[in-house]
């Protein structure tokens, strides 16, 4: 379990994954050496990683939430195969082992069936059904996570840690081969030093520093903290598929995004129109959440719950 300083450090890294440890220490009232030691311990003992990620819309990509139903004995092999695909993230087995849920990035201006991965899945042996749900609007997720709203860092402290504001992406950005090399290196370690990034790209450290700043301010790159919810005592995860009355959809999504249990919430296409990923301390807490805050959402018509059994891949697909 984590103490207050650990939680403050993780929240600071979610605000800015490349923030200087000297500034984190100054904000949290400890030395930068203490922050560096805590981060090293969290990496070694809790599997915490800072990962660079690309905003899909910035590079002409569309996000799909994909449900794959299969015979239970094929689930593990299929999940591992999906996790190896560069365009997938959040690959997990759910619903008692007969279903996989994952995120897939595909070209935004092409139908889902033209995605090589999405087209291949229905023809995969032992797969019984595939449904792909296009993410139309995200209420919570991406640059934000449960660390953002559940940590001890005050609003004034957050303002000191926050990186420069990003510009809206007007049209997809054309990335060079060197950009892709930079993004691939950051997807493996978002806090990689400029010397390491220069080696990966063939640029000078000065060029890497300048280009990374451009990609961040231009709204292309952001940083996320990958962590196991169990270190926060959250041992039960589930996907929620909610059907909301259209007139209440925006209000329900905004309310859902504020729940401390929610790590992702978005409007999707399909039979249900609001999807969420949630973490609770246990099955009793999940029941109380479903019958309390979820039941109180405006316009709820139905809720389908798919408990997660095993996660094979978390954040940061590498799309290139």
Automatic annotation (TrEMBL):
Positions of the Transcription regulator AsnC/Lrp ligand binding domain: 242-310
MF terms in GO: sequence-specific DNA binding
Ranges for region Disordered: 147-168
GO cellular-component term (any): cytosol
Keyword Ribonucleoprotein: no
GO biological process, one term: response to amino acid
Domain HTH asnC-type: residue ranges: 2-43, 179-216
Record keywords, A-Z: DNA-binding, Transcription, Transcription regulation
Feature: compositional bias, Polar residues: 147-158
Domain of life: Bacteria
Record protein name field: AsnC family transcriptional regulator
């Amino acid at each position: 379990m984590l103490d207050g300083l650990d939680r403050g450090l993780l929240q600071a890294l979610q605000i800015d994954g490349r923030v200087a440890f000297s500034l984190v220490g100054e904000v949290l009232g400890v030395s930068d050496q203490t922050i560096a030691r805590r981060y090293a311990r969290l990496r070694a003992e809790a599997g915490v990683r800072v990962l660079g990620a690309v905003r899909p819309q910035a590079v002409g990509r569309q996000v799909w939430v994909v449900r794959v139903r299969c015979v239970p004995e094929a689930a593990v092999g299929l999940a591992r195969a999906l996790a190896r695909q560069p365009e997938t993230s959040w690959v997990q087995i759910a619903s008692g082992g007969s279903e996989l849920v994952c995120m897939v990035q595909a070209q935004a201006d092409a139908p889902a069936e033209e995605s090589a991965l999405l087209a291949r899945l229905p023809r995969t042996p032992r797969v019984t059904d595939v449904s792909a749900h296009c993410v139309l609007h995200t209420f919570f997720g991406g640059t934000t996570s449960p660390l953002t709203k559940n940590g001890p860092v005050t609003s004034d402290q957050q303002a000191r840690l926050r990186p420069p504001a990003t510009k809206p992406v007007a049209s997809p950005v054309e990335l060079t081969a060197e950009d892709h090399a930079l993004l691939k290196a950051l997807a493996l370690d978002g806090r990689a030093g400029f010397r390491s990034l220069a080696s990966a790209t063939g640029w000078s450290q000065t060029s890497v520093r300048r280009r990374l700043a451009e990609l961040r301010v231009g709204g292309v790159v952001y940083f996320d903290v990958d962590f196991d919810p169990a270190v926060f005592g959250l041992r039960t995860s589930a996907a929620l598929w909610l059907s909301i009355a259209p007139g209440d959809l925006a209000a329900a999504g905004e309310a859902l995004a504020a729940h401390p249990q929610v790590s992702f919430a978005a409007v999707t296409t399909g039979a249900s129109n609001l999807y969420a990923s949630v973490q609770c301390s246990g099955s009793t807490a999940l029941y109380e959440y479903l019958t309390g805050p979820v039941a109180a959402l405006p316009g709820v018509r139905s809720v389908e719950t798919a408990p997660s059994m095993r996660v094979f891949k978390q954040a940061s697909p590498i799309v290139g």
